[in-house]
Amino acid sequence: MSDAVTENEYDSDVEAAIRENHPALITYITAGDPSLEDTKEYVEALDRGGSDLIELGLPFSEPIAEGPTIQAAINRALAAGTTPEGFFELVDDLETEAPLLVMTYYNMILQYGGSEAPRASDGRAAKPRDKPEVRPFVERAAGAGLSGIIVPDLPAEEAGPLRAACDDHGLDLVFIIAPTTEGQRLDDIMSQVSGFAYVQARLGTTGARANVSSATHESLARLEEYDVPKAVGFGVSEGDHAAEIVEAGADGVIVGSALVDIIAEHGSDTGAAAERLEAKAAELKRGARRGADSLTVDGEDAPEPEQP
């Protein structure tokens, strides 16, 4: 459970975390990779390292938005027996300064709480006897202390029931904005967004990249008129990436695959992985701040030149 409490001028803990810690660092790892016990240590390390928001992936067997790195992490978590209820028990047990969000797929939300609530590994398993409903999942998420939900495969046009449930329980519902999204569809998505807009840096799936896509700059410019924080993800892996993205106008950066890679590299050496995660978060936060400092120097707050 996050220690964050909404006592600020903003609509939610998520928005406050971004606005008050601008530029924000948002980190992602897959819950249960390689175990839920290890995940607890990793979340706490990311919190110490300077994460302002932490996304926890609830593993699902058909993760359409994920690249090979996160797919492999999801497979490891499923093999370790991660279930939705185990995930929520983990969140119950967490104590972080950073608000926590869950990232998962709509089938998991629909099926949770049915008379045959599925394991995460069941994917599109047998339908429960009761009609699938979103509210049991949202109620459990709020009770565990989560601050928001990200659902990559939920179209904005079909988000009404989940949006209403999140509103009733004080959770943000975050949507991913693709580089090709524009016009009325963009308006429709942005009308549903709360907390922040998850700006997809490039087409395709998640995964660490060597550079920042030019689409990032174009997407941020297209979203400038909307009064909601914008955070950029998909491909961010280094402090220099974070700096460039903030310079382009982002309010935050989202990093996942680079962190999941660290976990995979260290296997069962939880302590070493935690140390590297903490250090990587600190590096990324410093990079984001460099980007903000560059904007300050180049903008109105720049110091006056000395007179001869």
TrEMBL record:
<dbReference type="InterPro" id="IPR011060">
    <property type="entry name" value="RibuloseP-bd_barrel"/>
</dbReference>
<dbReference type="GO" id="GO:0004834">
    <property type="term" value="F:tryptophan synthase activity"/>
</dbReference>
<keyword id="KW-0028">Amino-acid biosynthesis</keyword>
<protein>
    <recommendedName>
        <fullName>Tryptophan synthase alpha chain</fullName>
        <ecNumber>4.2.1.20</ecNumber>
    </recommendedName>
</protein>
<dbReference type="InterPro" id="IPR013785">
    <property type="entry name" value="Aldolase_TIM"/>
</dbReference>
<keyword id="KW-0057">Aromatic amino acid biosynthesis</keyword>
<dbReference type="GO" id="GO:0005829">
    <property type="term" value="C:cytosol"/>
</dbReference>
<feature type="compositionally biased region" description="Acidic residues">
    <location>
        <begin position="298"/>
        <end position="308"/>
    </location>
</feature>
<dbReference type="InterPro" id="IPR002028">
    <property type="entry name" value="Trp_synthase_suA"/>
</dbReference>
<feature type="region of interest" description="Disordered">
    <location>
        <begin position="285"/>
        <end position="308"/>
    </location>
</feature>
<keyword id="KW-0456">Lyase</keyword>
<comment type="similarity">
    <text>Belongs to the TrpA family.</text>
</comment>
<comment type="subunit">
    <text>Tetramer of two alpha and two beta chains.</text>
</comment>
<feature type="active site" description="Proton acceptor">
    <location>
        <position position="55"/>
    </location>
</feature>
<keyword id="KW-0822">Tryptophan biosynthesis</keyword>
<comment type="function">
    <text>The alpha subunit is responsible for the aldol cleavage of indoleglycerol phosphate to indole and glyceraldehyde 3-phosphate.</text>
</comment>
<dbReference type="Pfam" id="PF00290">
    <property type="entry name" value="Trp_syntA"/>
</dbReference>
<feature type="active site" description="Proton acceptor">
    <location>
        <position position="66"/>
    </location>
</feature>
<comment type="pathway">
    <text>Amino-acid biosynthesis; L-tryptophan biosynthesis; L-tryptophan from chorismate: step 5/5.</text>
</comment>
<dbReference type="InterPro" id="IPR018204">
    <property type="entry name" value="Trp_synthase_alpha_AS"/>
</dbReference>
